[in-house]
Amino acid sequence: MRRKIVAGNWKMNNDLSATQALLTELKKQLPDTQAEVMVAPTFVNLFPAFEAARTSKIQVVAQNMHFAESGAYTGEVSAEMLGSIGIEAVILGHSERRAYFGEDDALLAKKVDTALSHEMEIIFCFGEELDDRKSGNHFNIVESQLKNALFHLAPDAWDFIVLAYEPVWAIGTGETASPEQAQEMHEFIRKTIASKYGQEIADRVSILYGGSVKPNNAQEIFSKPDVDGGLIGGASLKAEDFTAIIKSI
Ligand code: PEP
Question: Which of 5, 9, 176, 216 most suits a substitution to test ligand 1, by most atoms within 8 Å of the C-beta?
């Protein structure tokens, strides 16, 4: 059975005490759920968050990492460093990394390889911009993002991949893809994976939706057959909203 996952991307929000307070609140309010729950604090708060989450089912994951093993990359963080503090999963390819830090498919392919060589699970984000959607080019964009960054992988690498389809026009805008738009794209993504790796692998990979998921729209989006959960930005910063979203899966 495919894993159900709700992951919160906290981005560059919350200092140490806010991070600890949010985790304390989340642990208190966390519903009984089959879904896996992940949160991604900023680098400096990863270890305290990891410690705070230790006694719960919340998994703490990283928002990013560098592709190199180590060396002269000022300001960067390696897979090995993440692993050394207990972090076993990383978000790669978030649209903000692509847009503001110039991360392209080729660079992401290198990061994917490095993460895999450390047996790190990857939440791989991708999705089209508004112009692509308007011009009807969204399927081509999504297909090329997948192929360029992931289709060099061996089949067994897919055990470590979770996909997060995040249409850029829906991130932080309050404008969500309709449940039908999400389902249509997730089905397309699964077909694209099946065409390269076969139906069994395609059926096993969890595909999360991200983009303005809130307590009032989560249930309808999550009810679609190819939507296996969500990557949540803004709403994951409030324990009440995040737990309401978790409850709706
Ligand atoms: C995100 O940044 O991955 C995201 C989905 O943000 P939001 O939920 O705020 O749109």
Answer: 9
